[in-house]
Every structure is written in structure tokens, then in C-alpha cells.
Amino acid sequence: MNRIHAAIAVLNQTPFAWDENRANIEAAIAEARRRGVTLLCLPELCITGYGCEDMFLASFLQEQAFHTLERLLPLTRGMIVSFGMPVLHRGCVYNTAALVVDGEIAGFVAKQFLAGDGIHYEPRWFKPWPTGRRATLEHGERRYPIGDLTFDVGGVLLGFEICEDAWVARRPGASLSLQGVDVILNPSASHFAFGKQRIRRRLVLEGSRAFGVSYLYANLLGNEAGRAVYDGGGMIAAAGSLLAETVPFSFAGSGVYDAVLDIDHTRLIRAQSASFRPEVEGDERCVRVPFDHDPVPARRHEVQPPPWVEGPHRKEEEFTRAIALALFDYMRKSHAQGFVVSLSGGADSAACVLLVYTALRLAAAELGWEGLSKRLAHLRSIGRASSVDELMPHLLTTAYQATQNSGDVTRNAARAIAEAVHADHFELDVDALVKSYVALIEGAVGRPLTWEQDDVTLQNIQARTRSPSIWMLANLRSQLLLSTSNRSEAAVGYATMDGDTSGGVSPIAGIDKAFLRQWLRFMESTGPHGLAPTPALAHINRQQPTAELRPRAAEQTDEGDLMPYPLLDAIEMVAIRDKKGPSDAFDLMRAEFPQYAPEQLRTWVVRFFRLWCRNQWKRERYAPSFHVDDKNLDPKTWCRFPILSGGYELELRELLDRTL
Q1: Nearest-CA neighbor of 319 among 359, 349, 346, 347?
Q2: Which residues contact 10 (CB under 8 A, 6 or more apart)?
Q3: Which long-range contacts (CB under 8 A, 24 or more apart) does 580-584 make?
Q4: Which of 126, 120, 253, 242 shows the shortest CA–CA distance to 193?
Q5: Which SS3 state, helix, strand or coil, does residue 69 take?
Q6: What band does 300 get if pLDDT is binned at 50, 70 and 90?
Q7: Helix (H), strand (E) at residue 29
Q8: Strands 150-153 and 286-289
Q9: Which range is least confidently modeled, 196-205, 623-632, 640-649?
Q10: Over the stretch 13-25, which tens digit does the pLDDT of each residue have?
Q11: CA distance 179 to 211
Q12: How far apart are CA 514 and CA 507, in angstroms?
């Protein structure tokens, strides 16, 4: 019998955090060895971290990556392990997987297809390796094969697809299959997006079936570099069957998932296929390495994903766990002592504080209090608590900042939410500060400011006056100030710069307001799997969203200022994601929202396009946000748009001139 005990590892790495990254790799190798694993696949660029950006071009980083690999070699005695790392060859940097066999480097496989869309900028740093080419890499006095390689390791043939390689039409796996490869390893850095694991699963399962191989897919985990979130999302498959799958959104530093690969079985399937026509010419790209495979008994593996993965609230669960993990890692890796939120009593700020609380509850549920304490050892307050609820007053600070336009409804809602998450809550009256600013400018310009003439000015000064005090609390406690703007507001600039946009990170800027309100109702009534719901959210969910910046008699609401949020999000989708012009967007909205009069719809469509163009400068200045779907508005990771433009004026005139 020809069986191999194989495993994948998911790792929570950080760009050029050498000691931490090496420790996670060492833990994964040790756990794999404890289980008797022979073949281990680690994620893409796991030694350096995937998010090093322009530092990939730095010579010190390339050298330190090689030095780290050499330090890890002794740990691989008796094993086959792949390591992801950048390699400099003839003046170019390549994204490679180093295969190490029994403590020795067998060679480097270089990535052939580079991810250069959306959140990815790999062509800025790396060069794609040409298909079918092999070269020699010189490092010091040592020489290693590099390129489009396969490896015959003790009679078992191994090949690689590196992340993007598996997502293209002409994926290398087809060529590897024709070369008779038994196992394909895929070290990946595939960021989280809603529903993406289903796509990955299809790629892995169909690749293993069509190519007649076993397939190891290893992915990164956590908030690696600030914006992208990695869910783990690793799998092991063979001949179209799933053998193992990772638990998504783990708070651990590493995780190992193993299965037994029946090499004879996949070879039999290829032999029985009438359409399989292997290449029979020379195999000069194959590196042969002696290795004794220990006999492995048959073992059955059952794939048991968490119950919520295919449940009715999958998107709500994914959002909860993705942002919770992102916040947890952001705090941990930035060495912040917690978070501060200006808690207005509205949906956005309530969502932010609830996500912080949920992050700690999910982490404690997985790791236990002792494990959580180790992960958050940098917190000065960690020794003062023995549970999440005891820790929260030290870790989360909230403040309700009232003006004369604030009401009891929002004040009471803010207090109720703060109590529900056990935050250290303050109530501050900033109205005197607002009035002093207004009086200062009235004296300077020589006239009184009125709502009829100075509406925007009088609204914005209230939001901006709240910023200094909330920043003071953040500075006083060495905590991260969370900005509370959502994606719908970002699209039309419905936020006060240096006011409610103040903050170091913006956890909900990647999600639209309509879904956010849906999520808050889910958290009130159901809650994520394994955690209780939060009934106090009823104070939030029964309100109409309002900035509460105009006098109360104005009965201000967000949708009254803008348009219905579902419509706003639908226009954004067709205008920005699908790149439709104003007339096409209007026609699509007429079909999707027949309940609104055409004249009103046209007014809203024109309003969206004008506000979108005027407010790119705001989107350029928003605090870093977390990427949760592939229609993000963050110009630094997904959606680039000029700050100055013609503003669709010709197209908008044509729409306004249309006869309805």
C-alpha cells in the first residue's frame, strides 16, 4: 500500500515579524510531527508574511527570509515541508515555495500567475515565472534548482500551484497532471470575502478530480497586515472527495489539519480514465530526492464544518467572525490596550462596540481564559480580570457626547449598549464647546449663524467638537479609537471629516448600512452560533438612523438627507462595481424599485453620482478598513477613482433632459 500521512497548516503571520512568524511555523511543524505527518504544506509567503508590500524589494528582507528558512531546516528531519518565501534571482524577486526534504532544500517553485487585481498588487514586487523553465539559484556557496519544477520524493511525485495559479483558466495543475504528479500542494494567501470558501472548495475539489491527484490547500489566517482578513480556508482533497477542511476564523496562532492520502487510489483513477494522456517526453524539470516513506495505515476522516457554515445566517456569521478576528489581531499586533468608541446611540457605533465584545467572547470560547490571556499578554489589564466581562471595562471605553440637539432616546440607547458589553462608559456634554466655536466664528464674520443659511456648518461643528475629547480618552488609555462610518456613508460622503470619521481603524467601512441594520437585528434576536443574543440592541433597532445634528423639530433622518439605504446601495453596486453610467443606472433602478416615482428615482440617481464624485477626497482619508467583500470602496485596496474629475456632468445632463 502506498499511503502518505499529509497535513496543511493555517498560520496567523505578520509582515517581517521574524520571531513570531517562525514560532508559528515551528508550532505547526511540531504538531504535524506529533501526529505522525510526513508531508506538510505551509501557506504562501509564510516566512515573511504576505503583506510586506514594497519591503519585498528590500535586500535585508530577502536575506532574513533565507536565514529563517535555514534555521527551520533541522526541524524537518524525516519530513517533507513546503515553505513560502520571496527569492531574489538574477535581479528579480519571485514568489516561491521552497520544498524541504529531510532537512535539506530540494528546490524552489516560483509562482507563474501573479494576483494584480483588487486588493492584490503582486506584479509591483514579483515577476511571473515562465512556464516550463528551470534555472539554478545561487545563494552563497550553495546552488538550488528554481522554476517550474516537480519533485520525485521517494517515488511520490509532487507539484505546486501557488494561490493565483489555481484561479486562472490555464492553471498549472493541468500540466502537472500530464506529468503524472500524485500530489499538488497549494500554498495560498487568499483573503476573506463573503462566500469565497465555496469557490475555493470548488477549485480544490474539481482540481483533485480532473487532475486525478491529491490536493493540499494551505491558507493564511487572521488580520495579517491591517486590512485584509484571512479566514484560514484550508482543505485536503483527493480525486474529487474532501478529506479535511479547516475551522474558519480561528483565534489561534496556527492550526494543523491532516489526512491520509492513498496514492495508489489516485493513480488507479488516472489509469482507468480513457481520456488521460500523459506526456512521455523527458522530465528535465523533475528534481529527484531520496526519501523513505513510512507505511501508513488506512484511516477514515470525516469533514465536519461548524454548523453555521451552511446555516440560514451564513453571511451574518461570516461578518461577525471576520471583523471580530480582524479587531482582535489589530489590537494584539499594534500593542494597543483596547478600544475607544464615541457611542452615539445609533446603529454604527453600537455595531462597533458589539463587535469588540464579540471578538473577546469568541476568542475566549475557542482558547479558554488561559489561552486568551497568553494571546493578549501585552494588555496591562489582563491580570486584573478572570473573565471577558471583567476585562471589558479595562479594554473598551465609550462616551456619549451630547449637544442641545441630542435626545433621551439616543442617550438611553448608548447607556444600554455600553452596559450590555460591560464597557467603561462616560456621558459628556459638549454643547458649551459647540456654542463657543459658533460664537467665535460669528464674531469673526460679523453676523449670526443660522440654520437657514449655515446648515452644513452648524451640523459639522457638532461632530467635530466631539473629536478632541474622544481622542483624549484614546490617548489617555493607549487605546485604539474606532471610526464608525459605514460603506453607504463613504459612497456619498455622508460623514464629517475630523468628526465622526476620526479614528485609527474603521471596522464597518466595508459594509453597507442596509446589511448592518440586518446584522444588528440578527445579533438582537439570534446571535452568532455558540453565543447568546444581545437584547439591549432593541434600543437601537427600533430607531430610524439619524445624525441628530439638526434641531429636534427638523426630525432629521439619514434616509431623509440621502435616499432609502437599499436604493443607495443598489445604485452604488451598478455605478461603482459594474461601472454603469447615470442613464443605465437609472434604468436599472426603475426596474428594481418600481415603488418609487420615476422623477424621484432620477433625483436620487443624480444625487448619488454628484455626491460620489465630490467626496473621493474623503474616501482617500478614511481610517483603514477591513476587506469583507469584493466591492469595497477603499481606494488603497480596491476602488480607485480620481479626486478631481468631470463629475459625470455630461451624462447627468443627458439623464435630466430625458423625457420620462
Answers
A1: 359
A2: 43, 218, 219, 220, 221, 232, 233, 234, 246, 250, 254, 255, 257
A3: 581/648, 581/651, 582/606, 582/609, 582/648, 582/651, 582/652, 582/654, 582/655, 583/651, 583/654, 583/655, 583/658
A4: 120
A5: helix
A6: low
A7: helix 18-34
A8: parallel
A9: 623-632
A10: 999 999 999 999 9
A11: 10
A12: 16
Question: Which one, of 322, 370, 341, 331, lies nearest residue 528 by Cα?
Answer: 322
Give CA 568 to chain center in angstroms.
24
d(CA 421, CA 418): 5
Residues 215 and 381: their CA atoms lie apart, in Å, by 45
- Region 39-62 average pLDDT: 97
C-alpha cell at 272: 482507468
Alpha-helical segments (H) within 225-375: 263-272, 314-334, 347-375
Report pLDDT digits (tens) over 504-555.
Answer: 999 999 999 999 999 999 999 999 999 999 999 999 999 888 777 788 888 8
Q: How confident is the model at residue 631 (pLDDT cuts 50, 70, 90)?
A: confident
* Model confidence, pTM: 0.95
Using CA atoms, how far residue 139 sits from 66, 87, 89, 136, 374, in Å, is 9, 10, 9, 10, 38
What's the helix, strand, coil split of the chain in %, to 5?
Answer: 45, 20, 40
Residue 306 carries which side chain, given as an amino acid letter?
Answer: P
- And the C-alpha cell for 66? 533565507
pLDDT, mean of residues 410-431:
97
Q: Report the pLDDT averaged over residues 45-60.
A: 97
* Concatenated DSSP letters of 600-616: HHHHHHHHHHHHHHHTH
Find out whether 258 and 5 touch, Cβ atoms under 8 Å.
yes
In this predicted structure, the answer to whether residue 361 has a pLDDT above a threshold of 80 is yes
262 forms bridges with which residues in the sheet? 3
The C-alpha angle with vertex 202 and arms to 198 and 205, in degrees rounded to 5, equals 130
C-alpha cell at 73: 531546516
DSSP 383: G
Average pLDDT in the 456-478 region? Answer: 96
- 557's grid cell: 433622518
**Rounded to whole angstroms, what are the CA distances from 620 to 52, 180, 245, 655?**
21, 50, 38, 28
Q: Which residue type does 314 have?
A: R
Question: Per the structure block, which three cell numbers stand in for 644?
Answer: 478631481
Residue 555 has a pLDDT of 83
